[in-house]
Design goal:
The structure holds two protein chains of two kinds. By secondary structure, chain A is mostly helical. Helix content of chain A is about 80%, strand content about 0%. Chain A has 16 helices and two strands. Chain A has a two-stranded antiparallel ribbon. The longest helix of chain A is centred in the middle third of the chain and has 36 residues. Chain A starts with a helix and ends with a helix. The relative contact order of chain A is 0.08. The mean pLDDT of chain A is about 90. Chain B is an alpha/beta fold. Chain B folds into two domains: about 180 residues, Rossmann fold (3-Layer(aba) Sandwich); about 70 residues, no CATH class. In chain B, helix 4 crosses helix 5. The longest helix of chain B has 19 residues. Chain B is globular. Chain B starts with a helix and ends with a helix. The chains are: A mainly alpha, B alpha/beta. At the A-B interface, helix 12 and helix 13 of A face strand 5 and helix 4 of B.
Chain lengths: ~375, ~280
């Protein structure tokens, strides 16, 4: 497979160098730096097959040259927007294949140092993501895709860097206020009610079905009602988030509290352990994997809930508000900027919860490995 | 099948407290109500256990040997008859933390280290940190687990886990140890080894042990008194007082005395079974 990929790089570079790159009649040979870079890329790509530099220096050189070629290619595409021809597409394919080759070499790297291993483990998904962005950039600029349909990553990035105050204000309003408050209250309430439900049998019959019903309510129906109840500002969004996060937490905690087996409960009984001692020393630790499942589900649900809720009345700030108005004004790059912020914040939030989970439920077979 | 001495015992007032009587069971029955009608798990059980005894319950599965142990531990409620543990009701004995119970599986909590697992009952009893620390150390040494304090249960072998669970039961410092097939899941080499260690422990601490097993050699090797039970309804078929010396090692299993007792147990199990068919 790597050999095939390496020869593919060579073939694409050859096609790219000797055919029209941009309409009407511009070849890559007119940009000597780029041409040199691509030749180097082709040679480095097949060096395993040709039998030289079969080591990590060669691998790194391949990565560096691929990055250089990509950036030169992007700036060339910027000068000839929408004029891409066969040669350009061939070179795009060559760059993509070169990155693939690089990641594949990286993935089989063996290092004795823990730090290097960790860096490589982080680098692989990062390079993969960057490759996707580069492809996106090359295709959108090369083919001249209209901005309204899909802006290039560079344009989104430009919009993000020039609108930091707006994005920060929206992030504050939606994430730091509505999402975090709603998440904390929704999960907290779900947890406490679960303990109550577990303690009082009739609540299990009465409250669980009602909780189920509430979770089945459509968010686009609930959100306007919450706006009427709690006003335009973030508390109404937090209320929507509470409704969305409450039930997953309730159900998961209730099943988690039932997760201890008969022998473990008998053990506590032989110690004449009281209700609270059994709860804190046996049942809650046992329930932790379930509780963290709920927290992870809720971490992404909360953000979606808050953003969607802002479509139904909000002050003139907030991620959902910004998305709905900027779509109307055809400022799609701003919409994408908000999406990027939301994706980043959501992933970080989820990652934080997952890290905490690893620390708390280290003993669980799914984590201790 | 009851000896004359035991019939005499049975006639005594159940409430009379004898200084060295740990468990006194009179006419005890337990019936589970199930969808398929009542199941007579225990029927007319009479049994006295004295201080320092090592008593084994042996019988085929379904004979009620575990249920009887659970009745002593107040984990099941009898439906008829009377039982006292240390002269009080099983519930009161449980609340007094009069016994340590070792289950079929180690039932260690995976989020606690071995030392913290041993500390679990001590935390519930509300002992001071120094007292906890001292008891952990003492009992870990007693079961030869010193040095494994900071390991997690899933990092130890099955035999070590079961030893940790014995240390946990001993840490309560009960005079009575209830053990429900504690070595049932272990291979024979480990089991022999742990049997020997258990005997040494019993000799050192002079506790009363009630031990459930389905292994004849294990029962004969360990016990001063072997109670043979048979199923449907669960009842006592034979009580064998062992005259083997208290100070014994694994070699005793080759002696004629040992084989004689083992033979009697086997006959009892056979007879109890064929009664059914």
């Amino acid at each position: 497979m790597p050999a095939l990929l390496a020869w593919f790089v060579v073939a694409m570079v050859v096609v790219g160098l000797f055919s029209t790159a941009f309409k009407p009649d511009i070849g890559i040979l007119e940009a000597p730096q780029l041409a040199l870079c691509l030749v180097l890329l082709a040679i480095l790509g097949v060096r395993y097959e040709l039998g030289f530099m079969r080591n990590w220096i060669g691998d790194l050189a391949l990565g560096v040259v691929a990055a250089l070629a990509a950036s030169l290619l992007i700036s060339a595409a910027g000068r000839h927007e929408g004029d891409a021809a066969l040669g350009f597409w061939a070179l795009t394919a060559a760059t993509w294949a070169a990155f693939w080759l690089f990641v594949e070499r990286l993935a089989i790297w063996k290092s004795r140092s823990l730090l290097t291993t960790r860096i490589v483990n982080l680098a692989i998904p990062a390079i993969f993501g960057i490759t996707l962005l580069i492809l996106w950039e090359l295709i959108v600029t090369g083919a001249g895709v209209p901005k309204v349909l899909l802006p290039a990553p560079s344009e989104i990035w430009l919009r993000m860097t020039t609108s930091v105050p707006t994005l920060w204000a929206d992030f504050q309003q939606t994430f730091l206020k509505a999402v975090l408050v709603g998440f904390a209250l929704g999960c907290g309430a779900g947890f406490l009610i679960a303990i109550l439900v577990d303690r009082v049998p009739f609540l299990r019959r009465g409250l669980l079905p009602i909780g189920n019903l509430v979770s089945a309510l459509p968010i686009i129906g609930v959100a306007p009602i919450m706006v009427m109840w709690f006003g335009f500002d973030w508390p109404s969004k937090a209320a929507v988030v509470i409704i969305m996060t409450f039930f997953p937490m309730l159900v998961n905690t209730v099943s988690g509290l039932a997760a201890s087996d008969a022998m473990q409960r008998d053990l506590m009984r032989t110690y004449a352990s009281n209700y609270w001692q059994t709860l804190f020393k046996l049942r809650l630790p046992m329930a932790m994997p379930f509780i963290f499942n709920a927290l992870k589900i809720n971490s992404t649900l909360a953000l979606i809930g808050a953003i969607v809720a802002e479509f139904f009345g909000t002050p003139i700030v907030g991620m959902g508000f910004r998305i709905s108005t900027e779509v109307g004004r055809m400022n799609v790059d701003m919409v994408w900027a908000e999406i990027a912020v939301a994706a980043l914040a959501g992933s970080l939030f989820y990652g934080l919860v997952a890290l905490l989970e690893r620390a708390v439920t280290f003993w669980h077979p799914s984590i201790r490995g | 099948m009851l000896t004359a001495a035991e019939i005499e015992d049975g006639l005594e007032d159940a409430m009379s407290s004898q200084a060295n009587r740990v468990i006194d069971i009179d006419n005890l029955s337990l019936t589970f109500e199930t969808n398929d009608g009542p199941v007579h798990a225990l029927s007319d059980i009479d049994l006295k256990i004295e201080e320092g005894d090592f008593v084994s319950f042996i019988g085929p599965s379904g004979c009620g040997k575990t249920t009887l142990l659970r009745v002593i531990a107040d984990l099941e409620q009898p439906t008829a008859g009377s039982i006292t543990v240390n002269g009080v009701s099983p519930e009161q004995a449980r609340i007094n933390r009069a016994y340590g119970y070792v289950f079929q599986a180690a039932a260690l909590y995976p989020w606690r280290t071995i030392a913290k697992n041993v500390a679990l009952p001590l935390e519930i009893m509300g002992l001071s940190r120094e007292e906890q620390q001292q008891r952990i150390q003492k009992n870990m040494e007693l079961v030869n687990l010193a040095g494994f304090e900071n390991k997690y249960p899933w990092q130890l072998s099955g035999g070590m886990q079961q030893r940790a669970s014995i240390a946990r039961a001993l840490a309560v410092e009960p005079d009575l140890l209830l053990m429900d097939e504690p070595f049932g899941a272990l291979d024979e080499i480990v089991r022999d080894h742990l049997n020997e260690q258990l005997l040494q422990l019993w000799a050192k601490t002079n506790k009363t042990v009630v031990f459930v097993t389905h292994s004849i050699p294990e029962a004969v090797f360990l016990s001063t008194k072997i109670v043979v039970l048979c199923p449907r309804p669960g009842r006592i078929y034979d009580v064998i007082e062992s005259d083997l010396p208290r100070d014994r090692n694994l070699d005793i299993r080759e002696t004629p005395e040992f084989l004689k007792i083992a033979h009697r147990v086997r006959e009892g199990l056979k007879a109890g079974h064929s009664y059914e068919d």
